[in-house]
Amino acid sequence: MGSAELRLQTLAQHFRPEESVKPPPPPTGSASSDSTTKRAAVLVCLFKGDDGELRVILTKRSSSLSSSPGDVALPGGKRDEADADDVDTALREAKEEIGLDPSLVNVVTVLDHIVNKHGVTVVPVIGLLSDIKAFSPAPNAAEVEAIFDAPLEMFLKDEKRREEEREWMGDKYLLHYFDFEADDGKEYVIWALTAALLISAASAVYERPPAFLERRPKFWTSGQGAPPCPRF
Q1: What is the distance between the alpha carbons of residues 54 and 40, in angstroms, rounded to a whole number?
Q2: Distance CA 203, CA 215 (A)
Q3: What is the structure's pLDDT at 1?
C-alpha cells in the first residue's frame, strides 16, 4: 500500500461527518431555501489505477448547458433541501450525473470550501472507490458529455501546466490550467475552480504543497467582490 493510500485511511479514520459537513444555519431573516441554493458540493472520487497511482474521476460538461458549457468539472451540484449534508449532496449528484452508486464510495474527508463566481459555497468531498470495476459509467446526457479520469498527483506537478495572472480590486491572483490527454487520445483542459479544488485535494492526500505558486483570488475565500466575469 502506498503512502497516499495510507494517508486516505488515516483521514477516513478521523472523519466525523456530524462535525464536518452540515451547513451553517441561515442568517436571521433569510429563508432556509436561500441557504440551500447558496451551497453546493462536489465529489473528488479517487481510485487506484493499474499502475498503483491514485486517479480522480472527472467529467466534461455538456456543451448545451448554460453555465460553463464544455468545461471539465468534478461530479457535483447544488444542495437540495432533502440532502442531509454536503456528503449527501455530493453522492446524490454523482449518481445523477455519472451513475455512480453511493454504496461504492467510502467517504474519506471534507475539505475547506471555496466560494465560486456566483457566490455559492462549494464543498469538496473526498471519497475512495475501492473497486473501479464495479462502477459502470452512465453519463446523464443533459449534463455530461464525457467521463474520464486523471492522476491526482498531476495537480501538484509543474508539468503540462499554464497560468494566467488576473487582477480584481487590487488583488492579483493566478488561474491554473492543466492540459491532459486521456487514454483514448481526447484532450482536456482542467482549469480555474476545478483545478483549485484538485490542487487542494492532492495536497491533502499527498501531504505536500504544489511545486508552483498557487496564489488564489481572495474572493474564493470571502465570497466578497467577485468580478462580474462570466468565466474565471
Answers
A1: 25
A2: 14
A3: 63
Distance (Å, rounded) from C-alpha 172 to C-alpha 217? 7
pTM for this model (two decimals): 0.85
- Rounded Cα distance between 64 and 110, Å, is 30
DSSP code, position 29: T
Could you tell me whether strands 39-48 and 121-129 are parallel, antiparallel, or unpaired per DSSP bridges? Answer: parallel
Residue from 50, 232, 200 nearest 124 by CA = 200
The single residue listed with the C-alpha cell 462535525 is 19
With a CB cutoff of 8 Å and minimum separation 6, the contacts of 194 are 58, 71, 72, 73, 74
Runs of H (alpha helix) within the chain? 3-13, 17-20, 32-37, 86-98, 192-206, 219-222
pLDDT in tens, 90-102: 999 999 999 999 9
The dihedral sign for the CA sequence 89, 92, 94, 96: negative
Q: How many other C-beta atoms lie within 10 A of the C-beta of residue 82?
A: 9
The single-letter code of the amino acid at 212 is: F
Yes or no: say if 102 and 59 are a contact pair by the CB < 8 Å rule.
no
Secondary structure (3-state) at 86: helix
Rounded to whole angstroms, the Cα distance separating 102 from 197 reads: 21
User: 87 — phi, psi (to 5°)?
Assistant: -60, -45
